[in-house]
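Hi R.,

Here's the chain you asked about this morning:
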Amino acid sequence: MTTLPRPTTTLTADDARRIALRAQGLLGAPDRRAGVRGVLRHLGAVQLDTISVLARSHELVPYARLGAVGRKAVEAAYWTDAHAFEYWSHAACILPIEEWPHFAFRRRAYRDRPHWHHELPDGAYDQVIKQLRTEGPLTATELGGAKKTNDWWDWSGTKVAVERALMYGEVVCVERRGWKRVYDLAERAVPASLLHDELDDSECLRRLVRLAGESLGVGTRADIADYHRLKAEQVDAVIADSGLVPVEVEGWGRPAWADPAALATPPRGRHRTTLLSPFDSLVWERARTERIFGFIHRLEAYVPRPKRVYGYFAMPVLAGGRLVGRVDPAREGRTLVAKQVTLDGPKAVPAVAQALVEAATWVNCTDVRVERVDVPELREPLGRELAGLLG
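And the predicted structure, written out as tokens:
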């Protein structure tokens, strides 16, 4: 068992919070010249999800950091010029193309996997590869159909084959078209210098642990493992050689590691005031979010309506480096509807109003309507703030 060095640096809880915010691109001036691609590289992974309320999550993530970046520009930044690929990281994520070699360990694990939920029909895999080689890039529908019935889980043999090829790394998702994956052969989609799986598992894991540490700024073993969904033992095997340094964070009560670059300069600068996607990497890990922000975060889209507390797509509100409330949004024509607003006291009112108006402007809404506020006496102050900002 590897003996880890004892921490020589102690951080306060506020130090750790600010380091985490800066590492996530939410403290300090945004790098607008690098744009969406810079955000993707900085975070290492941007999660995809089917839910679209204000916008899809992979659009909301750069918006939270850069402001009102054009939504078409977001898609173009991800998918043009072989800049990114989609693969299984924290979940289904957009990843920088240069990280393709470092997911070789996961592709190998899929190839060695003994059991699958869907059976692969004889000949389907070879047929998909042949068709992509001659006709690609193609969606599953263009390959011959994604489903046998209307049930989302009832995949066709073609869909099973192309998804298996995606996991193996022989096929790549090169873009989303109307939310459908567009598949192409990896040999065409991935630059030749990155294509071959030459790195062993330890090299891959060291890189992903280091990337997670850089993207988090500071984190526990569980935080670091969760970022790219590694196993605890995989992190333990490489963290001593990853380049991260052990630190102690007051109040955390467990070992932590930090990116040395994050410790080199104090985290200062302008705080973003914004709505966050429930799938934003700042709040991926619930225990970490509660530990750092004292904020309980849970996506309730898959919770039965009567059991929801904060709403279907409750978006945390970030302001002043704190999570100060939640908004469950919807759109009705040119109106952004705040179906439910949760406020962390009267001081949160101006920030929540600002976040609502900025989000409304971004999605071409001209009005904001609030339906419910968890503290009824704050409804009128919130309405006044909104009226003042909307003019």
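Residues 20 and 216 are 5 Å apart (CA to CA).

Let me know if you need anything else.
M.
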